[in-house]
Design brief:
alpha+beta, about 50% strand, about 80 residues, 4 strands, 4-stranded antiparallel beta sheet
Amino acid sequence: METRLAVMSIIVENGEMVERLNALLHEYAEFIVGRMGIPYRKRGVSIIAVALDAPQNTIAALSGKIGSLVGVSVKTAYSGVISKE
């Protein structure tokens, strides 16, 4: 199975979506290398970075599910590194 390294940048503007976002991240936990969350209280948002090592279609599926949450924005940057496991 080919996997890619990627980083997802997530901005949560709607605090009501945090529980659903965390459930999605938990669902894909086996592919998450690490994550960092920063609550930016001054703006009332949360900024989250998630590092992944997963098949490209898995990364795209997670990104799509996160992007469908109301008040949540996501962008994904892919590395050129491909691993064959």
